[in-house]
Input
Amino acid sequence: MSDNFAAVAASPTITGVMGLSLMPVLNPSFSRPALKKRVLSQSFSIHCGSVSRMSSAARHAAVTAGEANPALHQFHLFRDIRTYGKYELLYEKARQNGSVYLRYDDENPPTVTRENGRLVVRVKDSLTAKEEIEIPSDLVVLVTGMVPRQNPDLVNVLKLPLGKDGFFNEIHPKLRPVETVVDGVFIAGASQGPKNLAESVASSLAAVAKTGALLLKGYVDLEPLVARVNTDACTWCGECVASCPYSAIEEVEEDGKKVARVSAVLCKGEGACVPVCPKQAIDLEGYTNSQIEAMIDAMAKEVIDETEDAQELSRTSQG
Output
């Protein structure tokens, strides 16, 4: 049983755990005190989802190891733990089986040294007035988090925004959880962030449903308020191309001169290209300079009319 579970646990398919070696821990003959050590590096700490998924895998491993060898001593060092839903039961069961959890601060990470042929872990437990605890260990296991793969070519082709953690961003995590700013492109699974199998399947089904609805509809609604270029004023400087995050502007030749052209399919009406144009040759439909100026004039006229009416009323009352 232990060998089969160890083979599965060492596989990169188990809830995103990479490089987690559990075979020595699950060996029933391994009765000396062992330490399972959780270290959250800087790249790991910014992935809140990684904390929850990796914590769940570590809790499951702790329960299984404790059942395989009740004499096993386990210490879990953590910076933060997220065990939501049914994973809370694993956490409680691991604690009931004797697992000890020690919390440390970012400023005082645990240290591992080798002394007299054994590993010694020292950590300041933040839950006990930061008292330094020394744990002689036979085994130290590093539980790592899931990080996004660097793929700049795909990012540049799809023009999808990335979050601070390096994963793809959806439009809204609750209202539009699998849709992106690019029409017809949906994200699911671990491309959005660390997820377990159930969450990956749920987001995949949502993306499939959105895709199916789009295909059944047969057409895509384009953004009506897009940028347009006044080719008579445009002298092509390239500033608009650099400002557009969707690569919706290209250089074309028209009437013997180079000008900018906006693709209505790619443009999202963000308007970043409008203020950077030195010739004011770009306008946003519905928000042109003349329209904005007209709205300002109308608003100012209303204020002036109200002021004059108030003054006239004051003079009438005094007379």
Observations:
- The chain has three domains: 2-142, 152-217, 227-287.
- Residues 152-217 form one domain.
- The CA atoms of residues 233 and 318 lie 56 Å apart.
